[in-house]
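Service request form, structural biology core

Requester: graduate student, group of Dr. S.
Request type: structure prediction, single chain
Budget code: on file
Notes: please return the result as structure tokens.

Sequence provided:
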Amino acid sequence: MKTIPFSLFNLHERYLLLQMVEQMLESRIEALTELAPILQSIRSIRKEMEQALHVSRSSDFSARIQDGDQEQDDGFLCFRMVLESLLYTIIDKELRVKAAQIETIIRRHGWSMVRLGVKKQIAVSSSLITELSEADNQQVLTDLGILPQYNAWKAAVEAVKELYVQKAEAESAKEDVTAATELGKQGVELLEKVLPGWAYQSEFGDNKAYGDLMNAIMESVEEIEVQARGRVSRRKASKEEEQN
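Core staff response, request fulfilled:
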């Protein structure tokens, strides 16, 4: 059997190999019933790896948070400016008093909160939203006709807060990369134990299914090896360019 360069395979390539071997075994298990326990072990490791890799995947939240911050800025300024216009309304001057009530509340929390950093702004916004969510204040906003602007800004703030929650979860999930790596090692160790036996059976045994299985596995290995060696070569070339 050709030596398989497992050391070249990265985490995702090891997962891919386990997945392929699992699929090949599943399609031939009726002819190789004695390999059912091994199939179960490979499937178990592959499933645990999949879960760990799924949890550990995270996006770059910087751009999304920046967009969300702009959204909450625009939402707040829209809400505030519509309120300011009502401080000078001549259509219904009684609304001026109600607008002044809301203005006082906003100024107490942060009239110019858009100048703050994102996290500080979220904290100030949340405090202001808590007070404006009180029934009396909600009624004033309704009377002023600016509840839609308030709700739009509130939704933008909640969206940014949720992005920070997702970012924290993604960062904490980095531990799962370690778990996936260990599982990848377990998968490789298992394959290193069973593949030589399967290769022996394919060459000297009576069950032709072993030969079919090993041919399929080695074809997949060759494809992954090409991918791995290409990646290693590109990385090496990149380092050489940096040194020059």
